[in-house]
């Protein structure tokens, strides 16, 4: 599971203060040095580490902390609050359209987990709201992606609109949207193509789909295992396409977790969901405060 090593190191860094009655500035400096190393080791973005440690240090050195009866406890609380802030403060759900359908477009590199996420999201919408989504198979470059989406559709009893691999994704989305309107589906989930790397052709295609479908959400799906690359990908998609949220997948894997900790602060885009496994039910709405508690152990 992600963050195991980070949790241990943060606990060790803060635990040392517990044994002391009175905490001095040099104790805080020493703790901050260890926290900084732990975050860097977990692959958190350098700018994020700097900002975070600066905020924690300033607050930890405040008189009300050092003079308090339980300074170590106060510092743990400060670290928790600042970590929550770094992760985004509040859970941000799906932005719904006032008029059906709410259109959600997935974007991301190949293998990030877009198709899987589309299925997981459909499942959650059905469970939570008895939604009637339509999924559009727009990934025509990876033929297996269409079959994969159809299999998910069968499992969930959700219609999947596809036109095979010979029609342009933009046309597929156009006709898929027509079908959704005709059938009064309340959600449209558009699975788009990914590439191994970001290229202009991919971005152009996504921009055309965005223009046509006017999505309420453009969710960028990134793989936590790719570390800082995931952060760079998020930044790049946000600049070029404009994203409304991020989905971090594979947090169940053996990842150091730094990407999950950096994305919000680097890109400004909120993390909306995390994927924690391959099954349809392995999806969690992202809550910054719960994630912070989990990291701090
Ligand atoms: P796409 O190319 O972006 O559509 O990616 P896929 O949805 O096909 O996912 C790529 C691989 O990652 C598949 O083997 C999925 O089962 C796997 N996967 C997706 N999300 C998760 C996750 O949250 N955890 C784990 N462990 N595997 C995942």
From TrEMBL:
It is found in: Cytoplasm. GO terms for biological process: SRP-dependent cotranslational protein targeting to membrane. Coiled coil: none annotated. It catalyses: GTP + H2O = GDP + phosphate + H(+). GO terms for cellular component: signal recognition particle. This is Signal recognition particle protein. GTP binds at residues 108-115, 191-195, 249-252. Its EC number is 3.6.5.4. Involved in targeting and insertion of nascent membrane proteins into the cytoplasmic membrane. Binds to the hydrophobic signal sequence of the ribosome-nascent chain (RNC) as it emerges from the ribosomes. The SRP-RNC complex is then targeted to the cytoplasmic membrane where it interacts with the SRP receptor FtsY. Belongs to the GTP-binding SRP family. SRP54 subfamily. GO terms for molecular function: 7S RNA binding; GTP binding; GTPase activity. It is an enzyme of class 3 (hydrolase). It comes from Enterococcus dongliensis. Keywords: Cytoplasm, GTP-binding, Hydrolase, Nucleotide-binding, Ribonucleoprotein, RNA-binding, Signal recognition particle. Composed of three domains: the N-terminal N domain, which is responsible for interactions with the ribosome, the central G domain, which binds GTP, and the C-terminal M domain, which binds the RNA and the signal sequence of the RNC. Part of the signal recognition particle protein translocation system, which is composed of SRP and FtsY. Residues 270-283 form the SRP54-type proteins GTP-binding domain.
């Amino acid at each position: 599971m992600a963050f195991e090593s980070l949790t241990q190191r943060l606990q060790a860094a803060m635990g040392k203060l517990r044994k002391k009655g009175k905490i001095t500035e040099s104790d805080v400096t020493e703790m901050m040095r260890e926290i900084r190393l732990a975050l860097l080791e977990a692959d958190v973005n350098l700018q994020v580490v700097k900002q975070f440690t600066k905020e924690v240090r300033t607050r930890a050195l405040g008189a009300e902390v050092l003079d308090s009866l339980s300074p170590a406890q106060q510092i743990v609380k400060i670290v928790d609050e600042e970590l929550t802030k770094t992760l985004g403060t509040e859970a941000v759900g799906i932005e719904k359209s006032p008029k059906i359908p709410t259109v959600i477009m997935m974007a991301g590199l190949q293998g990030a987990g877009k198709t899987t996420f589309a299925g997981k999201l459909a499942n959650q919408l059905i469970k939570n709201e008895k939604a009637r989504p339509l999924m559009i198979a727009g990934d025509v470059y990876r033929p297996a992606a269409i079959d994969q989406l159809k299999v998910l559709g069968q499992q969930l009893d959700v219609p999947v609109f596809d036109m095979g691999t010979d029609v342009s994704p933009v046309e597929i989305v156009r006709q898929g949207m027509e079908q959704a309107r005709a059938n009064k589906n309340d959600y449209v989930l558009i699975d788009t193509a990914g590439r191994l790397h970001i290229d202009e052709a991919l971005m152009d295609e996504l921009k055309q789909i965005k223009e046509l479908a006017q999505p309420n959400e453009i969710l960028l799906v990134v793989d936590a295992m790719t570390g800082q690359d995931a952060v760079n990908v998020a930044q790049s998609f946000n600049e070029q396409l404009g994203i409304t949220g991020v989905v971090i997948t594979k947090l169940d894997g053996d990842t150091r977790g730094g990407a999950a900790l950096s994305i919000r602060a680097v890109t400004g885009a909120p993390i909306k969901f995390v994927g924690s496994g391959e099954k349809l039910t392995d999806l969690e709405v992202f809550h910054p405060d719960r994630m912070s508690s989990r990291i701090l152990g």
